[in-house]
Design a protein that fits this description.
The structure holds two protein chains of two kinds. Chain A is α/β, with parallel strands linked by helices. Chain A has a domain at about 75-185: Nucleotidyltransferase, domain 5, CATH 3.30.420. Chain A has helices spanning about 30-45, 110-125, 150-165, 175-185; strands at about 50-55, 75-80, 85-90, 95-105, 140-145, 170. A five-stranded mixed β-sheet of chain A has the order 4-3-2-5-6, covered by helices on one side. In chain A, β2 and β3 form a beta hairpin. Chain A starts with about 25 loop residues before the first helix and ends with a helix. Mean pLDDT of chain A is about 75; it is low at about 5-10. Chain B is an alpha/beta fold. Chain B has seven helices and seven strands, in the order αββββααβαααβαβ. Chain B has helices at about 15-30, 75-90, 95-105, 115-120, 125, 145-165, 185-200, and strands at about 45-50, 50-55, 60-65, 70-75, 105-110, 175-180, 205-210. In chain B, α2 (about 75-90) packs across α3 (about 95-105) and α2 packs across α6 (about 145-165). Chain B is elongated, with a radius of gyration of 24 Å. Chain B starts with 15 loop residues before the first helix and ends in a 5-residue tail after the last strand. The mean pLDDT of chain B is about 80. The chains are: A alpha/beta, B alpha/beta. At the A-B interface, α1, β1 and α3 of A face α1, β1, β2, β6 and α7 of B.
């Protein structure tokens, strides 16, 4: 059989020793690469889906404007949002409010306390009375934002509705007298 | 005095375990990754405590920031269908390549007369800041309303087609609309967008928010 001559015939009968190799491979470069890729994927991944808020607006039925529901004055609280994060609220009708318009502020010490108080008061007054859907009659909140407010203000107040568990609330259009009231108070 | 002999230790560490962990993490991130889509106009959403998750499918998002509106449709079929309906409504014809480009374009914010120009561009060029000037949504030229309507109709058509093919588990559901507004956006602008949706009797929608603690 043909033999492969590897040269170096000086061995002459000596066994060709295979070189002893170090079995450990240098992993530094591999680890570097792996961590680089991890960083890349961590930064480009959107792990959490964005949060969102459900909003149902009252239907704007132009053909049948008579299809509206009358609400009791002593259950309705109106929150007016003014410029520079100002809040004004009143209870009852605008023309003859049960509680006069009062200034408040956003946050847990401000409007949240007011809403909770009103809610408790209404629920006490209507104790045991159920509405058409068989739920306890509670506070109704109407939110009216003036043109100088920011979107953030609207979200803040909707968030208060969620925190205080107000089941009936609506976003309404602000009326002229209300804008004038805000102007008078320097809030519009 | 006896000399303290410092034993010579090898500076090499065994990196096998580290390598294992690194690759395990790497495979995890690759599997769970859904690449973040570049947005034509990044906005800073206001925070809320409500933790409802935004649906992943059947969704169209209206992004509002700096008085500009952008429209994003999640599914490519809906995008194609919506463009077909818009091309009919506004009498603009698009080529097959343009349909293809639009189906791959998740969100956009240009008036219809600039759409062809946008579609002709490379995807990387489209997201340049200030390039997309927003979809008009004033009462005279309400293109945003047309897009929303077209998207809803296209979504309905897609669902009907799937139903007629006998696919199981298809339930008819209207296209969900989410509004992603900038926290500092003026209220009348948002109100206008809400009004556009209400004109189409779309009274329920999502507001995209960030997350915060109850004690603010």
């Amino acid at each position: 059989m043909a033999e492969l001559n590897t040269g170096g015939d000086g061995g002459k009968g000596k066994k060709v020793r295979s070189k002893k190799m170090n079995p450990g491979v240098d992993l530094t470069a591999m680890v570097d690469l792996a961590f680089l890729l991890i960083t890349f994927f961590m930064l480009t991944t959107t792990l959490s889906k964005p949060q969102s808020m459900n909003l149902a607006m009252p239907d704007k039925n132009k053909e049948e404007p008579t299809d509206t529901q009358a609400v009791a004055n002593d259950r309705t609280m109106t929150i007016l949002l003014g410029k520079d994060d100002s809040v004004l609220w009143y209870f009852g009708e605008f023309a003859a409010p049960i509680i006069e318009p009062t200034e408040s502020a956003y946050g847990k010490e401000g409007i949240r306390q007011v809403i909770l108080q009103r809610k408790a008061a209404v629920e006490a007054a209507y104790k045991g009375q159920l509405d058409d859907n068989g739920n306890q009659k509670g506070l109704i909140v109407i939110i009216k934002a003036s043109d100088k407010t920011h979107y953030k203000n609207l979200i803040d107040i909707l968030d208060e509705m969620a925190i205080t568990n107000i089941s009936i609330y609506a976003i309404g259009d602000i009326t002229k007298p209300e804008v004038e009231l805000l102007k008078e108070k320097g809030m519009d | 005095m006896a000399k303290v002999k410092v034993s010579k230790k090898s500076t090499r560490i065994d990196m096998t375990a580290m390598c294992d962990v690194a690759f395990l993490l790497l495979s995890f991130f690759i599997m769970t990754a859904t690449a973040k889509q570049p947005e034509p106009h990044p906005v800073d959403t206001p925070a809320s405590t409500v933790q409802t998750k935004l649906p992943e499918e059947n969704l169209a998002t209206i992004t509002v920031g700096d008085d500009k509106a952008f429209f994003t449709m999640m599914s490519p079929e809906v995008r194609r269908g919506a463009l077909e309906r818009i091309s009919q409504e506004y009498n603009v014809t698009f080529t097959d390549e343009e349909y293809q480009a639009f189906a791959n374009l998740q969100g956009f914010g240009v008036p219809l007369n600039q759409l062809k120009g946008l579609l002709a561009m490379e995807p990387s060029e489209r997201m340049e800041e200030g390039l997309q000037g927003g979809i008009p949504f004033d009462s005279v030229n309400n293109q945003l309303g047309s897009w929303v309507k077209a998207a809803r109709e296209a979504h309905k058509a897609v669902l009907e087609e799937r139903m007629s093919k006998g696919e199981e588990g298809v339930v008819f559901k209207d296209l969900d609309i989410a509004i992603k507004g900038d926290a500092e956006e003026d209220y009348p602008v948002i109100k206008r967008v809400i009004d556009i949706l209400q004109e189409q009797k779309k009274n329920k929608f999502f507001l995209v928010t960030g997350l915060r603690d109850e004690n603010f």
